Amino acid sequence: MPRKPGSSRKIWNDPKFRSVIYQILAILFVAGGIWYLVSNTLHNLSARNIATGFDFLTREAGFAIGEGIIDYTPADTYSTALTVGLLNTLRAAVIGIFLATILGTIIGIARLSSNWLISKLASVYVEVMRNIPLLLQLFFWYAIISESFPGPRQAYNPIPGVFLSNRGLKMPTLEGAGVTWILGGLFLAIVLTLVLANWARRRQERTGEIFPVLKPALVLFIACPLVAWFISGADLALNVPELKGFNFRGGMTITPEFAALLLGLVIYTAAFIAEVVRSGIQSVGKGQWEASSALGLKRGLILRLVVLPQALRVIIPPMTSQYLNLTKNSSLAVAIGYPDIVSVVNTTLNQTGQAIEGIMIIMAAYLTVSLSISVFMNWYNKRIALVER
Amino acid sequence: MREQLFNSPTNSLLTVLSVWLLLMAIPALFDWAFMQAKFSAQSGQECRQVEGACWAFIGEKHRLILFGTYPYAEQWRPLLAVVALVALLLLSTWRKLWNIWLLLVWVVGMTIVGVLMWGGVLGLTYVENSLWGGLPVTLILATFGIALAFPFGVVLALGRRSNMPAIKTLCVTYIELIRGVPLISLLFMSSVMLPLFLPEGMTIDKLLRALIAIVMFAAAYVAETVRGGLQAIPKGQYEGADSLGLTYWQQMRLIILPQALKIVIPPLVSIFIAMFKDTSLVVIIGIFDLTLAAKAALTDPAWQGFGVEVYIFISAIYFVFCYSMSKYSQALERRLSTGHER
């Protein structure tokens, strides 16, 4: 209300004073609420004889976990079990993000294709997958794998050594000292390719000459592992899975749980990523397409050299939230029995009764992962923006 | 035809490839879903004889899937409640009705739904809500979730834009904390931690606990969307309101919020769709929604092994709801955007 001239300046009419009062009230309200909840909780915990604190982490877990990247037995501690769960979550998230980005980009570009059939198929895919809950999709894939696939004895055998059954996907693995050497060789090839690409880019900026990176990179990717293999003394053997009794021995397994989780996450998130990619590409003006084709560039080259670099600026922020969603959605694994962090904490919580610590561990784990993804993507976003202008 | 399908070698190849894929997939699917399918059977044993889908299973279990464990003889009540809820939602899509009367219609409608579901009055037997299940639970969680999360989210958004540091910090902390964790962790929190938070002897119903978690989660997302709308309002509007001498709440209620909310209606509908889908997560804490009812139908020993059929059935229900909502939001976006063109 406008103040009438001459009216007394009461202190509670002063906006600054009032804002201080509001803030104090808000803090008191929140702090009071927290104090009330904490005191209730402490009372309830002591009434029910539930221990508090994180001491349980060093105790023996005593439950088995279906799969994991590191070795684990029920005799290990709860903290080891939680690490197994966290690594399983990260494995699903990292592979999921990688595959969903590829599939999503392909579908997003397909939606814009001049080919009527392709673009219609892509848009049907997007509409169907976006409008069905992810959890249902997970159940669906899990039901298909565990109900419709045959048992190990009648397993599908599309390629020699690869078996598809309701126990999951069995694949041969490489064994021997050569494996580490070959991996080392591959890593070297990646590093050398990156260095080469960087040098080629700088040279192109300086002189305008284009250096074909693809061919030397291919040579590197074949030569480095091959040389590493020779250095290791050609120590390499194939461990092919075999049917022994009622199950397979040897080789590598992708369990039905992991396969269903990955299928669900990738297929669902790809639909959203496709929309992000499509809107990003559409944000680049039509004139750019016309100008580049007037210069004689082919459609694929226009996309790669002119449109995508500009579209990335629009794509990266929503893409970040899709990555975050995928990571958070991997928590649905608990519903189909994949031992992710939520599933392990849930078992822990049922055994120890320490609900608060358990939920805090889940939340802390996801907050850390989410934060790292955002930090990385924001860094990438800034880099893109710098190249841009 | 030539222009759209065969205008270049790559495109021709792609066309041929996808036509081949469709020719492989569609007849096989059609065969499975209709030709080889069994539409009526006495038990699962009969269904196992055939190659195709077992729709007889859906016919046998549809009442369990749609209405859960609600007393069999009374299942016309949840059916009517679902019809009432859908009618309310449809009515709300009609833009002519967007005024204060719609609120009244909702209050009346929700009362009718409550009376139908609970009963205990007008000669209806009382049914406690631990017996509710299926589609009505999904719809109730979604509608109440968004209805309660919306005002909460708007307040959070205003708090985040406030120039009082303490209030701003509280809102930012809340929003970022909630958006950083999965909904499952909040649902777990509501199911195992909330009972510890309350004074001894006081309990909250399981359904209500799940609703609290959903509201807390959705509010953070609503808040971020509304913040986007608030940021889109030019500074001149705030200054104009200030110079009129309006108080903060008058300013927000009369000038800023109506414009900001109009801008963010389409993303709000998207949040509603996401929430509708997310209600399926209450399966994990054992609430009998559509998805858990479907899983329960699968546990009958006489009818085991028809998971694919039942999930397709449920997916179709979700798809109808979500797809119509998303089409509506797109139509709304087109209609609202005309107002902003110059």
TrEMBL record, chain A:
Residues 86-377 form the ABC transmembrane type-1 domain. The lineage of its organism: Bacteria, Pseudomonadati, Pseudomonadota, Betaproteobacteria, Burkholderiales. The keyword Flavoprotein does not apply. It is found in: Cell inner membrane; Cell membrane. It comes from the Bacteria. The keyword Membrane applies. GO terms for cellular component: ATP-binding cassette (ABC) transporter complex. Keywords: Amino-acid transport, Cell membrane, Membrane, Transmembrane, Transmembrane helix, Transport. This is Amino acid ABC transporter permease. Belongs to the binding-protein-dependent transport system permease family. HisMQ subfamily. Its main location: membrane. One of its GO terms (biological process) is amino acid transport. GO terms for molecular function: transmembrane transporter activity. The chain crosses the membrane at residues 20-38, 92-112, 124-144, 178-197, 218-238, 258-281, 301-320, 359-380. It comes from Orrella marina. It is a multi-pass membrane protein. NCBIfam families: HEQRo_perm_3TM.
